[in-house]
Amino acid sequence: MADAAHTRRIIVAISGASGAVYGARLLQVLQGQSGIETHLVVSDAGWRNLQHELDMDRPAVEALAHRVHDVANVGAAIASGSFQCHAMVVAPCSMRTLAAIAHGLADNLLTRAADVALKERRRLVLMVRESPLHLTHLRNMVAVTEMGGIICPPLPAFYLRPQTVGEVVDYSVARVLDLIDVPHDLAPRWQGLELNAP
After folding, report:
1. Fewest CB within a 10 Å sphere: which of 41, 115, 141, 150?
2. Which residues of this UniProt protein bind FMN (predicted)?
């Protein structure tokens, strides 16, 4: 780990929506980055999905982060605005978690840390996962956007012609890394199309 004075802290939260792979993959990529310290918080449903979708037990997930915080511990360091943090990503973000953030409920450590990110004007990225969307979902997304958060659904980029599920996942994680200013070579960048001459 880099010197504390030059370390960027990033909070990674995993909620109970399908798509636990996005949070796990983001942690894996950040683990390999110098100068970054990750703080992980996982909801109860998030732990269940990590096990169900990825066959990852709690120790395996916790090993990917520098610090792990219990979702019920609202007294943790990341619950305070005085905790210096570069960005927070909720990957994936359930509609329940989105709603709590949109309405400032701060009813657990995950939603409190997101509330802090908004009030301190720090980068907050929500990888929302649901389809189809009803009006309340859409309004909650608008509310978070108006407060300065970024709604970043994990959507495939078929123009890059992905060949595996892993490539689809990496593209969405790469977009998040761009949003939180973390350099990477996780996915190819669009170079444009050459139009054929008539």
Report:
1. 150
2. 16-18, 43, 94-97, 129
